Amino acid sequence: MTTNGFSGIQKVTIVGAGTLGTQVALQTAITGHDVTVLDVSDDALTKCRTNHEAILKTYLARDNANDTDNDNDNQARGWKGLSSVTKSAEQVVEETLNRILYTTDTEKAMKDCELVSENVPEVPEIKASTYTNLSKYCTNDDTIFTTNSSTLLPSDFVEHTGRPSKFLALHFANGIWDANIAEVMPHPATDDTITTKVLDFAKDIHMVPFHVQKEQNGYLINSLLVPWLNAAQSLVTNGVSSPADVDKVWLISTGGYHHKELSTCRAPFIIMDQIGVPLVAGVLSYWGEIHNDEQMKANGAYLQEHYVTKGKVGITNGNPKEDTIEGIYSYPNPEYMSTDFLK
Amino acid sequence: MTTNGFSGIQKVTIVGAGTLGTQVALQTAITGHDVTVLDVSDDALTKCRTNHEAILKTYLARDNANDTDNDNDNQARGWKGLSSVTKSAEQVVEETLNRILYTTDTEKAMKDCELVSENVPEVPEIKASTYTNLSKYCTNDDTIFTTNSSTLLPSDFVEHTGRPSKFLALHFANGIWDANIAEVMPHPATDDTITTKVLDFAKDIHMVPFHVQKEQNGYLINSLLVPWLNAAQSLVTNGVSSPADVDKVWLISTGGYHHKELSTCRAPFIIMDQIGVPLVAGVLSYWGEIHNDEQMKANGAYLQEHYVTKGKVGITNGNPKEDTIEGIYSYPNPEYMSTDFLK
């Protein structure tokens, strides 16, 4: 089977079977590509396969076979149009699992591979040794290497890839099928035709591609989110306001109340709970140090002290209507999902 | 007639008949209060009355007499529930205009006045002389003075009010009936009972009140908007991305596509057009100077050079579906209102 896609890329290797690697592998396979998941750990691969089966159950639950007009709002944006009158959702699931190979064998994983998506931990030494190893076993000079690193730049690793002109960032968001963005960021020596090909590949896997035209820490979305979350937390850290008030004022001022349902409304502290409070605290502390920004450091410390150390970590990928967890808000049924929240 | 409101305040004087003063006066009157509009210019008062009549026509157009469940999404948030089975929208309009007095006579305007909303230009000398004059003619020691200043703090003028404990900020957004927030910000010497009373008054005029607990430049909403707009413009100024791509990535990542209709979606550059590009350019340049922030200064200069000097000022209070104007986007029917925008 071929995808008849824009890029012509069919065989893809996902390196690293963590949260993001698992999601990228599933999204690439469900859109018709042959996927190999490579990890150093058999346990990680087993967990990855289990997670794929669980995610595919949510695909089935959200699928609507009558969704021919692509307007089923319950279905994830990245999953629209996969099932059809000629192919049931059950068939999509079966074929998807059949297209994924899980292995610890780098040589096997790199054979005939056309595109690599690297999703290993954000530790420079691990990234460097991974690229050195992949390069050693990659027999095809045309293979494109992409990194899904959130915090590091392609330039940081290009020397280890053995293919500077065919290396760039292809960055996804957590919950890749819902927030279906793909940020494509070359380094200065990336070949333009390769950038174009990867933008096309992003479309092939049902992403909306964004060309980040210069290397930029945080790509596009994190470059917007970090200053915004930091500004929101500054108001709380400095005793000016409360998380719920900040969220309310944002939602009213930016027309957030026009959402079809309250569970989809997004404001700074609602988003902190979804990203995970420990991650937000870590990012603010880290960038506060890097930029020597006292307010940002104080904001990271505040979140750490008032939430993280108390086990209030947020809802991340959970269901705010069902899960019992603390974050900035209390779950299930946080106050922002009450119809009175904006009154 | 009395409002039977939370605050007990009935007689309100609006000082300054500009854009915001006109809106505050109308909203205060339409919710059942006796309003005096005071300005130094007869022409300004005539224009204010004309604008009141025009705004009340939009109220009639948006009103739905059957809106007993307060769920008419077309109606402004601040106008819900004004008409009823016993009172038609036409009656509301007639009574509203009958409750407003327009005058250039400070003595008359201050007689029996319970609350003042000051909306004069953001020039420190004008504010100071206004408060000195109001204080001179205010015969009631209990009268509360509020400032609607967006850029200056209550502390900057408290010495001219003659009533430090009864002075504070009561700040509204442009389009007060839609973005129906009221930011109530005391200075350190404001009496707590006065702050509470003004929060209650905000509810009486159908606002959602927010207590800004410490003096903060930009209150809550502008404290969030400015860093966010600045971060967005940085990506464009630095050649990393384009306005439309930045808006798309925001809307997809924060679930903005869940809005009932595309015309209500909000992202950084869409909002810049609604605020008005010259104002955003001015704010970024000003704060860039104050904070000695080179990136922010460059962002203000970029907007000035690429848009403002070319007459691309945005849509502000206009209708994006009908008006012909340039901004970051081209109107009418900007690309962000196309159903393909997020595909």
CATH overall fold name of the largest domain in chain A: Rossmann fold
Question: Could you give the order of the helices and strands of chain A?
Answer: EHEHHEHEHEHEEHEHHHHHEE
What Rg of chain A, in angstroms, do the CA atoms define? 21 Å
Supply the CATH class of the largest domain in chain A: Alpha Beta
> What is the number of helical segments of chain A per DSSP (H or I, 4+ residues)?
12
Spatial gap, N to C terminus of chain A: 54 Å
Number of strand elements of chain A: 10
Number of individual domains of chain A: 2
What proportion strand of chain A?
5-15%
How would you sum up the major sheet of chain A?
Answer: 8 strands, mixed
Most extensive interface: A-B, 54 and 54 residues
Named CATH architecture of the largest domain in chain A: 3-Layer(aba) Sandwich
Tell me roughly what share of residues is in helical segments of chain A: 40-55%
| Computed structural class of chain A | alpha/beta
Assembly form of the protein? homodimer
List the helices and strands and how they pair.
The structure is a homodimer of 343-residue chains.
Chain A (H helix, E strand, L loop, with lengths): L10 E5 L3 H12 L3 E5 L3 H21 L26 H10 L1 E4 L2 H5 L4 E4 L5 H14 L6 E4 L10 H4 L5 E6 L8 E6 L5 H13 L3 E4 L9 H17 L5 H11 L14 H8 L1 H14 L3 H13 L18 E2 L3 E2 L12
Parallel strand pairs in A: 1-2, 1-4, 2-3, 4-5, 5-6, 7-8
Antiparallel strand pairs in A: 6-7, 9-10
Helix pairs in contact in A: 1-2, 2-3, 8-12, 11-12
